[in-house]
Design goal:
The complex is a heterotrimer.
Chain A (H helix, E strand, L loop, with lengths): L8 H7 L8 H36 L1 H8 L4 H26 L3 H31 L15 H37 L9 H25 L7
Helix pairs in contact in A: 2-3, 2-6, 2-7, 3-6, 4-5, 4-7, 5-6, 6-7
Chain B lengths: L24 H5 L4 H29 L10 H20 L2 H15 L7 H23 L13 H5 L4 H28 L12 H33 L12 H35 L6 H14 L15 H29 L8 H24 L1 H7 L3 H31 L1 E2 L2 H28 L13 H31 L1 E2 L26 E3 L14 E3 L1
Antiparallel strand pairs in B: 1-2, 3-4
Chain C lengths: L26 H21 L7 H21 L7 H27 L4 H4 L4
Classes of the chains: A mainly alpha, B mainly alpha, C mainly alpha.
Chain lengths: ~220, ~550, ~120
């Protein structure tokens, strides 16, 4: 009994076409547009938090600045770099898939995941530190001086915004992990790799949110004494 | 006038269609067919509609007498809260898009399904899970903050089940986002050959505009509810003045979504009217492009007016001026549509079928609601009538006299296509009449009550308001009866109704070019479009593409 | 058929000159963008220690916006995408701007009318 002949690249790509689309191109266009529209919803979602931050910082800029001095600028800068590197590895993963290079694809996806975990690990260290110093908002919050209300507002926003961001990172790691498994099983070809492209868009977006969070949370009080 | 066939009197075997393609619970609960998903939604939203109606009934019963003698004040607070939450988030917002939009958008553009059928199914499950959370809150004692969840009551003081209700709405919001996303991508990428943007039915334009709002606005209510939840759980101070927060910020965040949300509720109904009127006037829509542009204009301008809910909140007077001015502007595209529908009917050949009755009812009642909206946009008037029954009458004229009549009109217009059956026209006309009379008797007195000063959300009132309240409650009972009738005769028609032809109304539009009910893949062959919309002349044959 | 529509035989939007994903960006560009991003990160951290008064925020957000633009253009391929994607992004950012600016305009103009100050505690 003869073994089934493996699919050619064209046949495989054709098998990935869903029945309600007329062409791979249409399917790819639809997924890309869908991800961009979804990212717009994320802009508005984080946007509500950014609005809240803006209003309260405008009301007490000095209080916010004093609170921000309690952030660890080294860890924050390192984390920003970690995410930027992960964006590079994610972009390279897409490139590897588009050029049909499986081993680099697996390597770059794995690197992205590791960097994601590194980011979360550093955030965990920061959170633990803040909690030890009674900077978690609520009844146990302690902050010397007249800026206590503003500082508590600052830290409410800090934990809320970075927490929401971290949740998105966790989801992103899950997505890239799934891609890694699929890539390991040889599911991606130059003709069919839109899941990687589209997940890349999500990953870069989460990086961009942090690019804005970093200066707003870590860098506002540095020049004050 | 219509191309209706005389249906066979013999009990014919069921025709092959999306309804017969697979039996059993699994074939429905795991379906990817947009038409079946639309019917799943139809079942769920009907349930929530009658649940919301039950709360309304209890409210109106309490308000029969001036004293608060039916329920405790706290209970009354829960009644109007649950009425609002269920009606807004679980009925009005999904209704037309999730049922009629899901069913007909792919057909109207000549596609086999939406862009993401599995996402569509997920959207229904997400809606149901959100609904379950909210039901849990209802069953365990309800929420008493008002559907508007104003802080700091909702975040600090209320001891009711704010969190489960907020979580429920948060989750259901994602259903809205996914539906809007699916529609936008579908309309951009899956139109049939020849179906250019300006050949699209206006129903599709309305839903495109609605989807823009869903996608841009819903995330903001989501993050707002998240902030409320965080504040409640961790005792934070985003909106609590005692901790440096500002309750008005909550209102800005809340209304940034909730005002555009009312356009999510009314734009699809306008889309339905834009389909019904040309069909039953046998005339092309007057000023098609203006109606299309007006839909998008409503969506855009609708995002710039939210502060008109906050004129007396402590918001700055200058912001109030801005919002008042923009609120006047947003009335213009709506008025354009009303003019265009009227002009469509002028010198048309009107047939007074049930869908047309609902459409004309919509036009009249929406106009009244919209005009009273202009009164409210006027800062000085709003200061007087804010938080009175005038407001309640205003938005019920739009939501019930407008959106729900649009919904019922659409259900009656497309029922033959969806079910393959005809309902009893006599009973349907009667029900439409009952709805119209009941509606006006319920809500017109409320304009007067509000103007005279009766505040909203109070379970008792001064005795001099009783007559008008009794009229309103009587109207509500009639209205309720009017809503139950379609439930009865539409169900009845599924079993005993006469078979419908593919185009019982003689309408244009791709959905009428296929069988009633349609096959799973919608069209046996992909249509190629080379005619303009609403061409009421001898119909061109659909060209086949192999 | 009278109307030429779409790159897709099944329909869809107007014809594009070339499909987006056929354009493969060179890794050299990625590495160059990456280097600039790291450089700008260091810059923004360093500059934050300098007292620029009200310009501190402008500079910090300006650098962040510049970094974000690079990520969007090159890592997210907007430079090589159809105009529709740019409209989508612009729409999202515009809507965010509306929400921020109009809400802030309330807070910032509250004290302008002397009448209400009489009632403040």
């Amino acid at each position: 009994m003869a073994e089934p002949r493996p699919l050619s690249r064209e046949e495989y790509a054709a098998s990935r076409l869903q029945h309600h689309f007329v062409s791979m191109e249409q399917q790819r266009d639809a997924s890309t547009l869908a991800m961009w529209v979804f990212l717009v919803t994320e802009i508005l979602f984080f946007g509500g938090f950014f609005l809240t931050y803006t209003v309260y910082r405008w009301q007490d800029p000095v209080g916010f600045a004093h609170a921000s001095q309690n952030m660890d600028i080294v860890l924050g800068t390192v984390n920003t770099a970690v995410l930027i590197i992960s964006s590079l590895t994610m972009a390279m993963a897409v490139h590897s898939a588009a050029t049909g290079r499986r081993k680099p694809l697996l390597a770059y996806l794995s690197a992205t995941i590791l960097l994601g975990f590194a980011f979360l690990g550093i955030k965990a260290v920061e959170y633990t530190d803040h909690i030890h110093h009674h900077l978690f908002p609520g009844p146990g919050f302690r902050f010397p001086g007249p800026d206590k209300p503003a500082a508590e507002m600052f830290f409410s926003l800090y934990f809320g915004m970075t927490g929401l961001h971290a949740l998105h990172m966790i989801i992103g790691i899950g997505i890239v992990g799934t891609l890694l498994v699929m890539a390991y099983r040889g599911r991606f070809t130059p003709e069919y790799h839109s899941p990687i492209e589209v997940s890349g868009l999500y990953w870069h977006f989460v990086d961009i949110v942090w690019i804005f969070l970093f200066p707003l949370l870590y860098l506002i009080g540095r020049h004050l004494k | 006038m219509s191309a209706e066939m005389t249906p066979p009197l013999v009990d014919a075997p069921p025709r092959e269609s999306f309804l017969t393609a697979g039996y059993g619970v699994k074939s429905w609960l795991l379906t990817r067919d947009h038409k079946r998903i639309a019917l799943l939604y139809l079942a769920s939203i009907t349930f929530f509609f009658f649940l919301g109606g039950l709360f309304a009934l209890l409210i109106r019963l309490e308000l029969l007498t001036p004293e608060g003698d039916l329920v405790q004040p706290e209970t009354y607070n829960k009644l109007f809260t649950m009425h609002g939450i269920v009606m807004v988030f679980f009925f009005l917002i999904p209704s037309i898009p999730a049922v009629l939009g899901n069913f007909f958008i792919p057909m109207m553009i000549g596609a086999k399904d939406l862009a993401f059928p599995r996402l569509n199914l997920l959207s229904w499950y997400v809606y149901m899970i959100g609904g379950l959370f909210t039901l849990w809150a209802v069953v365990h004692g309800g929420v008493d903050t008002g559907w508007t969840f104003y802080a700091p009551f909702s975040t600090v003081s209320s001891s009711s089940h704010v969190l489960p209700a907020a979580i429920g709405i948060f989750i259901t919001g994602f259903s809205s986002i996914l539906t809007g996303l699916n529609f936008i991508v579908t309309i951009h990428t899956m139109r049939a050959p020849g179906m250019t943007w300006f050949r699209l039915p206006l129903f599709v334009w309305s839903h495109y505009a609605t989807s823009l709002i869903m996608v841009l606005g819903t995330p903001v209510i989501a993050v707002t509810l998240l902030l409320v939840a965080l504040e409640r759980i961790f005792h934070l101070g985003f909106f609590d003045p005692a901790l440096g927060g500002d309750p008005v910020l909550f209102q800005h965040l809340f209304w940034f979504y909730s005002h555009p949300a009312v356009y999510i509720m009314v734009l699809p109904a306008m889309g339905v009217v834009s389909e019904i009127v040309p069909t039953f006037a046998r005339k092309s829509v007057f000023g098609y492009r203006f109606v299309a542009y007006a839909s998008v204009a409503i969506a855009v301008l609708g995002f710039l007016v939210w502060g008109h809910h906050m004129f007396v909140s402590g918001q700055s007077v200058y912001a109030g001026l801005f919002f008042s001015l923009l609120s006047f502007f947003v009335a213009i595209p709506s008025a354009v549509k009303v003019f265009n529908w009227t002009a469509t009917m002028y010198k048309g050949s009107i047939s007074w079928r049930t869908p047309m009755l609902y459409a004309i009812g919509f036009i009249g009642l929406f106009t009244i609601g919209g005009l009273t909206g202009l009164f409210l946009a006027t800062l000085g008037v709003d200061v007087h009538v804010h938080d009175t029954y005038f407001i309640i009458a205003h938005f019920h004229y739009i939501m019930v006299g407008g959106a729900i009549m649009g919904y019922l009109g659409g259900i009656h217009y497309w029922w033959p296509k969806i079910s393959g059956k005809l309902y009893s026209e006599g009973l349907a006309k009667f029900a439409a009449f009952v709805v119209f009379v009941g509606f006006n008797l319920t809500f017109f007195p409320q304009f007067i009550l509000g103007y005279l000063g009766m505040p909203r959300r109070y379970h008792s009132y001064p005795p001099e308001f009783q007559v008008l309240n009794v009229m309103s409650t009587a109207g509500a009972s009639i209205l309720g009866f009017g809503y139950v009738l379609p439930l009865a005769y539409l169900f009845w028609s599924m079993r005993y109704g006469r078979d419908a032809s593919s185009n019982p109304w003689g309408a244009t539009g791709l959905e009428w070019q296929t069988t009633s009910p349609p096959p799973t893949e919608n069209f046996p062959v992909t249509p190629v479009v080379d005619w303009e919309p609403y061409e009421y002349r001898p119909k061109k044959e659909v060209a086949a593409v192999g | 058929m009278s109307d030429p529509v779409g790159p897709h035989p099944g329909g869809g939007d107007a014809v594009r000159p070339h499909a987006m994903t056929e354009h493969i960006v060179s890794p050299k560009i990625y590495v160059a963008v990456f280097a600039i991003l790291l450089l700008m990160t260091g810059t923004t951290t360093a500059v934050s220690f300098v007292d620029l008064g009200p310009w501190s925020t402008v500079v910090a957000l300006g650098i962040a916006a510049f970094k974000a633009t690079l990520v969007v253009l090159f890592f997210m391929h907007i430079k090589y995408s159809r105009p529709l994607m740019r409209i989508v992004i612009f729409g999202g950012l515009f809507w965010l701007a509306i929400m921020l600016l109009i809400t802030l305009s309330d807070f910032m103009t509250r004290g302008w009318l002397p009448v209400f100050q009489r009632f403040e505690p």
